[in-house]
Specification:
7 helices, alpha/beta, about 260 residues, seven-stranded mixed β-sheet, about 25% helix, Rossmann fold
Length: about 260
């Protein structure tokens, strides 16, 4: 892992690199990081109940991946399913996942306005995807514009401190500077030669950008371990995501806001 200071590279460079790498590793994520899950070891939607009633609602998934979150929404009675993802391979997988449904799927960066209807959706959400954006302000402005007045935006992402945590010999250590925002470069994503660049931001940056955009924040959740792991024991682990770490520090932040 390499921290790159002094600001982002050109966002187009990052997007092109990340798209190629996501196309290569997409198969690792078929059915992963999808509702009702909000993130590794975190409480699920069945526990948090952030979405309320979905029946007859118009839904937009940002970073729709393999389409399994949209499948979840269809099972809850959503009347329209829309999704965008940076990876063409992910979109192809999502089309297969949703082949028996009428889903509107688009391959595009979330930062780009591709003509998604404005003031149209009851719910916009993003499960472990919105943090990939190279332009948080532009992305939040777009997501706000897609929602009807009173509509909800719900997203989850790594807890902003989690990237700095290391587990060594049963202790949790802080590495690097939380105060210094920038990007992290991983030369090998999912163990493959697939370089990705991921922005690092403070939690206050996400919250303040939501406020600036005009959202009203309804809930900020620093995840606890889901009850499904109550009977699971685990020794100290140095893996990036581990139950050992999750029981000591939240893996995930989950925020609900309304227009």
């Amino acid at each position: 892992m390499k921290h790159i200071n002094g600001g982002f590279r050109l966002s187009t460079d990052i997007l092109e690199q990340n798209k190629k790498s996501w196309d290569k590793v997409a198969y690792h994520f078929n059915g992963k990081d999808a509702l009702p899950s909000y993130g590794p070891f975190a409480q699920t939607e069945d526990e948090l109940k952030l979405f309320n009633e979905i029946k007859n609602k118009k839904i937009l998934d940002i970073g729709c991946g393999s389409g399994h979150s949209l499948r979840y929404m269809a099972d809850k009675g959503a009347i329209e399913l829309w999704g965008i993802d940076l990876s063409e391979t992910q979109i192809e997988i999502a089309r297969e996942t949703l082949k028996d449904l009428n889903a509107n799927l688009f391959c595009s960066p979330m930062e780009k306005d591709i003509g998604i209807p404005k003031q149209y959706f009851d719910v916009v959400y993003s499960i472990y995807a919105v943090g990939w954006t190279t332009d948080l302000a532009a992305t939040f402005d777009l997501l706000y514009s897609y929602l009807k007045p009173g509509g909800s935006f719900i997203f989850s992402w790594d807890h902003p401190l989690y990237v700095h945590l290391r587990s060594r010999e049963g202790q949790i250590l802080l590495e690097g500077s939380y105060q210094e925002e920038g990007v992290v470069n991983y030369p090998n994503f999912k163990g493959e030669e697939a370089p990705v660049t991921i922005p690092t931001r403070k939690m206050s940056t996400y919250i303040n950008e939501l406020i600036r955009t005009g959202f009203t924040i309804e809930a900020v959740i620093e995840s606890d371990v889901s009850s499904v792991f109550d009977s699971v024991s685990e020794e100290a682990s140095e893996r990036y995501y581990s139950l050992f770490k999750a029981r000591k520090f939240p893996t995930t932040m989950i925020i609900k806001a309304t227009r």
